[in-house]
Amino acid sequence: MCLAIPMQIIEINGFNARCEAKGVERDVSLFMLQGDHINTGDYVMVHIGYAIQKVEPEEAQTAWELYDEMLRLEQEQLTGNSDA
To answer: In CATH, what is the architecture of 5-79?
Structure first.
């Protein structure tokens, strides 16, 4: 399974960007989006160091909510605990 992570662009230098998500920063290639208009503050889906798609902030938030829920459920399964 492949997974792309939504990240916000905080700095752009040519086809490279510094992106942030949940306090973690990474250098990301914008090469695959060179035909798109990308700005600082935009959200992109990042897969193996490449921005593969520009997304709206609401889409990024929804993705993180789903990822957080999956992690919570996995942790419950591993520990045998649940809040229900």
So the answer is: Roll (2.30)
pLDDT classification of 64: cutoffs 50, 70, 90 = very high
Distance in angstroms (rounded) separating the CA atoms of residues 16 and 18: 7
Alpha-carbon dihedral angle through residues 60, 62, 66, 68, given to the nearest 10 degrees: 70
* Whether the model pTM is above 0.70: yes
Segment 19-40 shows an average pLDDT of 96
Separation between Cα atoms, residue 21 and residue 52, nearest integer Å? 16
User: Which tokens belong to 39?
Assistant: 């700005």
Q: Where are the beta strands (DSSP E) in the chain?
A: 5-13, 16-21, 24-29, 43-47, 50-55
Residues in a beta bridge with 80: none
| Cα–Cα distance, 70 to 49 (Å, whole number) | 22
As a whole number of angstroms, the distance between CA 5 and CA 44 comes to 8
